[in-house]
Structure formats: C-alpha cells, structure tokens
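ok new one. same drill as before - structure tokens go in, u give me an amino acid for every spot. 603 of them this time. try not to just spam alanines like last time pls lmao
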C-alpha cells in the first residue's frame, strides 16, 4: 500500500512538473483564453463644423450592452430577469440567444444612454457586459441633412459628406487586453494600442445662411404646392459652397428613416433642363464670336418662328428687341436667332466649357455630369432649342458655377464643400464679355424685367428667370414646370451666386420662375448680405425707397432694424453625469443660436 501510494504521488508530481514547467505555455494560453480578451477601444468620429466653427455633426458617447451566449446558457434561470432589464419580450431574447448558441458575443442592446446600461449591468447577470461606442448627432437636423448625410449603427458614413470624408473622419480604434473574473468583471487591463480620434472637418457652409436658404425654400414649396425644390449658394471668387438646401428632407437623427427618396441631394444629383437660365450663356457665345453686340436688334417675328416641324414662341409679341432686351424680356425667339448665327461646333464647345456636360468635381458622392448632346446627335432643331434651355440638362450646382463664372470675370471654378479647399480655375469667358452679360442680366430685376420680385433693396442684382416644361414619363413634355431663378449679387462687386429650382409647382398658384423662385432668392440674399457684412452698391435706390415710405432718416441698409429669426433646436438624448460632463462643451456649441435676418420690412 505504501509503495502504491508512493507511485501515485510520484505520478502526480511528474504530471504537475509537466504542466507547470515543461508545457506551461500551452495550459496558460488555455486559461487565458477563458479569462483574457482583447477588446476594442471605441474612438470618437471627427466633428464637422461650418466655416465659423459651429458644429454640424458631433459624436456623443453611448453604451452598448452585449452578452456571451455560452455563459448565458449556463444561467438560463436569469433570462426572464435579463429580458425585463432590457425591456424586451422574453420570447425575443430567447430567439436572439438561440441563434447565437455556442458563440461568445451577441449585442443585446446598442447605443443606449449610459445610465440605462448601468441599470442593466446592476443586475450582475453572468455573461452580460457593456462597451463604449459613439453616436452621431446633427444639431441642424433637416436643414442640412442631404449635404451631411448620416452614419450607420457602426458609426460609418453612409451618404453625403459623411461618406465622402469617411477616411478623414472615422479615426482608428484602440485596443486593450483585459482579464475577467468568472463573474465577468474586469480585474486587470493593459493598453495594447492607443486610439486615434477622427479629424475635424471644417466645411465652407455657413449654418446661418444654410438655415435661411432651407427655411425660405421650404416655405415656398409649401405655398406653391410644389413637389420639391433645391437652392445653392456659392462664393463666386472662391468656389466655396455656402449653402445647399433641398426639400423634401429628413431628420438624420431619427433611428428609422422612412422616406428614402428624401435622402437625395437634388442640387448635385438631379438633372433638369435649365430653361431660360441658358440665355445669358447663349448671348455670351454670340458676343465672344463677334456676331452681336448688346445693342444689336432682332425682330421677334410677332412672337413665333418655325423650328423644323415645330414652332418657337414667346409669351408675348415683343416686336423688335436689342440683345439686352432679349435678356430683359426672356425672348425665346431672340435667343434662337442668336444661336443660329453660330456654327454648331462652336456653340457646343462654348456651352461645354461653361461646365455643362461635365461633372463639377466637387467631391460629393453621386454628382451628375448632366447631358449635353454632341453635335453628331443634333437634328435641325437642337441648336435653336438649346439656346433657351431645352435639349440639354444640368444640375443646380452646375448652373450656379456657370453664373459664378459670369460674375468673377469669366473664371469657371470647381466647387468645394471644404473651407479653404483646393479649387481649380479656368478662364472660359473674356472678362469684358462677362461684364457685358452681367449688365444685361441686371435689367431682369428692374422694372420691365421678368424678375422684379428677386430685387434686393440697396443692392444691384443680375439674374435670369427660367420656366421649363418637365419631361413626361411617357415621352415629350408634360404640363408640369420647373421654376428657376439664377442670380448674382451685388453687381458692382460680385460675392454670391444663387440658383433656386422649384419643381412642379401647382399651376393654379403660379409657376413662372420670377414669381416662384425669385422671391426665395430675394429673401435669402437679403439675410446673407447682412450676415456677411457686404456693403450695398445701390444706396440711392435704398434712400429713395425709404423716403417714399416715410423713413427719410434711414440712410442705408446698415441703419435698418433687423427682426431676429430663431433657428430650431434639436434635443439631445439624456446622458449620465459623466457623459454629460465629457460632452457639455460640444453640446453647448452644437445648439443653434438665434440669427438676425432680412433687410427692412418690405417683404
């Protein structure tokens, strides 16, 4: 018996020696596999701000509760308690765990308030833990949704600028090695890789101008019974996009998105036939070719001329018009006659170099190049109809950049959404020609023009209306219209180009560009010029208007009282004390502040 016991003891010592000395690494790795884990360290996505540093997209810390199904199956008696803590039906929890049986990880509830996660963990159910994540919030909500886009549940950019700058914004998660007790508590941790937060992105957008553009566009779409609308404002000298609004829109903060069609940034992706906004380009082509001057006279033939088997008509019989008058009255007949003086290849190349038929290269995902048919595909009517904006298509941003080129002395710029972003410039029009066209477009907003409702008191406005029939789904043109206004202000020292497109307004309420889109331009530019401290260039008109209204003491727009317009506030979800302290500064900056808009009271 003593010998037998000695043999057993010897075997036990030998086995212990084998396990603890000879093959210890194998057994240590097995033990560590049960209690040691490498866990990711969540990293905050870079904040997106407007040009003035005001937050447009911020990341707030949240918690995600997860479970180890292998461990949870050992404690099935705690499942009802867990379901109640998670506030989900017991059957739903059973299905989740059954699908992941044998696995080691399962999300139980994602991106919730840290205080809620703490309450769930307080039940100390074996196999249940939480991890830090971040959730994206958009303080401006609907007003800028299509431009910014949004992130998914994993905080990855899905659309808009969130997608375009994903690599810049996302950062690099860290990693830590932890040892857990049998109860799942972390008893030791070691940093393996430090996290690298995402970089901040400063956009060219101004949140105040953006909200103003959205509000005025939204109000007009509602008033006119239109289907949709877009508005773009660009700095004519830098190519920076100051505002880009679309209606209908959506709330990027909502968990569930219902109207997917509203996600589309129509100002960059949707094609429209530009209508009469093409006429200044047709005139510029004729001036450059030396075929016309601003004072060249054309007969409008009673308001109707033949164009192959069709007819080109004007809304009125304007008799004889100078080239300037063709712009002022928006004569289709006069524009077609100018185009007919130009060779096909020359006219095509001139329109193409103005940016039509090519992508603007703004970097925005999904931007369209438009449609500019090559001369080999033209028939006998194409050139004449292109002269007044039919037979080709463009996006609102393309039209805006073409008008910016007319305003800045003939330089076509690549648009940018980044403040101080790299912009390419190409001289496409002679400065003298661009200046002549600007002076002609100035007559459009003066008495006798088609867009007197787009005039901004105290400033000279150069612009052009457009009213184009929409293509029918069955072919040809329908009785629906797109209403345009494209303009530049102030004329003497151009700063901003703006394009407004309202799609399919109710014809019983009016559908002409000057009536529908012109007032949006006026209201937005009134506020933008004041916000940007742009001095007026038409003081005499301002003084005369105020004297007529009985306010002779108001000597300039700077003296006028400006009513405040409050921007909407988006409520952030409740946070724990620690999370609130960590994000208090960002959250305070993220809340929109009241902004002063408008000039005088003559709206």
């Amino acid at each position: 018996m003593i010998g037998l016991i000695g043999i057993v003891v010897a075997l036990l010592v030998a086995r212990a020696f084998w396990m603890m000395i000879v093959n210890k690494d194998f057994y240590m790795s097995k033990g560590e596999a049960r209690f040691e884990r490498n866990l990711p360290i969540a990293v905050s996505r870079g904040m997106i701000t407007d040009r003035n540093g005001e937050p447009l997209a911020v990341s707030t810390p949240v918690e995600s509760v997860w479970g180890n199904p292998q461990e949870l199956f050992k404690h099935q008696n705690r499942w009802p308690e867990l379901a109640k803590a998670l506030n989900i039906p017991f059957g739903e929890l059973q299905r989740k765990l059954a699908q992941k049986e044998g696995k080691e990880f399962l999300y139980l509830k994602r991106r919730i308030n840290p205080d809620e996660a703490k309450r769930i963990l307080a039940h100390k159910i074996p196999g249940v833990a939480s991890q830090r994540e971040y959730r994206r919030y958009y303080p401006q909500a609907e007003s800028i949704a299509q431009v910014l886009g949004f992130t998914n549940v994993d905080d990855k950019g899905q659309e808009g600028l969130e997608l375009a700058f994903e690599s810049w914004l996302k950062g690099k998660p860290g990693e830590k090695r932890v040892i857990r007790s049998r109860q799942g508590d972390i008893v030791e941790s070691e940093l393996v890789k430090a996290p690298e937060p995402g970089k901040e992105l400063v956009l060219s957008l101004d949140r105040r101008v953006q909200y103003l553009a959205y509000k005025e566009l939204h109000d007009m779409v509602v008033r006119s019974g239109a289907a949709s609308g877009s508005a773009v404002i660009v700095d004519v000298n830098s190519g920076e996009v100051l505002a880009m609004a679309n209606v209908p829109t959506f709330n990027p903060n909502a968990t569930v998105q219902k109207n997917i069609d509203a996600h589309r940034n129509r100002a960059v992706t949707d094609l429209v036939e530009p209508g009469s906004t093409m006429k200044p380009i047709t005139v510029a082509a004729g001036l450059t070719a030396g075929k016309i001057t601003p004072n060249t006279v054309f007969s409008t033939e009673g308001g109707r001329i033949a164009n192959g088997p069709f007819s080109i008509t004007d809304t009125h019989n304007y008799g004889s018009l100078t080239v300037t008058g063709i712009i002022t009255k928006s004569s289709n007949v006069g524009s077609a006659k100018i185009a007919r003086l130009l060779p096909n290849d020359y006219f095509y190349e001139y329109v193409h170099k103005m940016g039509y038929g090519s992508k603007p290269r703004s970097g925005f995902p999904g931007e369209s190049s438009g449609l500019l048919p090559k001369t080999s595909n033209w028939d006998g009517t194409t050139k004449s109809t292109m002269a007044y904006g039919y037979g080709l298509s463009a996006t609102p941003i393309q039209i805006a950049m073409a008008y910016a080129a007319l305003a800045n002395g003939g330089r076509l710029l690549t648009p940018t959404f980044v403040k101080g972003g790299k912009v390419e410039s190409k001289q496409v029009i002679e400065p003298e020609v661009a200046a002549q066209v600007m002076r002609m477009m100035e007559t459009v907003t003066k008495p006798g023009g088609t867009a007197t409702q787009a005039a901004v008191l105290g400033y000279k406005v150069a612009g052009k209306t457009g009213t184009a029939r929409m293509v029918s789904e069955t072919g040809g043109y329908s009785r629906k219209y797109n209403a345009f206004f494209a303009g530049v202000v102030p004329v003497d020292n151009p700063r901003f180009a703006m394009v407004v497109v309202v799609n399919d307004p109710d014809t019983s309420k009016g559908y002409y560009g000057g009536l529908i889109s012109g007032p949006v331009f006026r209201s937005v530019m009134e506020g933008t010029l004041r916000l940007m401290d742009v001095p007026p260039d038409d003081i005499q008109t301002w003084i005369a208007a105020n004297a007529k209204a009985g306010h002779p003491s108001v000597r300039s727009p700077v003296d006028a009282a400006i009513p405040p317009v409050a921007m909407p506030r988006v409520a952030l979800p409740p946070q724990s004390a620690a999370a609130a302290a960590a994000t208090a500064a960002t959250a305070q900056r993220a809340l929109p502040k009241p902004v002063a808009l408008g000039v005088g009271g003559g709206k």
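The chain has two domains: 38-202, 207-252+265-560. and btw The domain at 207-252+265-560 is CATH 3.40.710.10 (Beta-lactamase).
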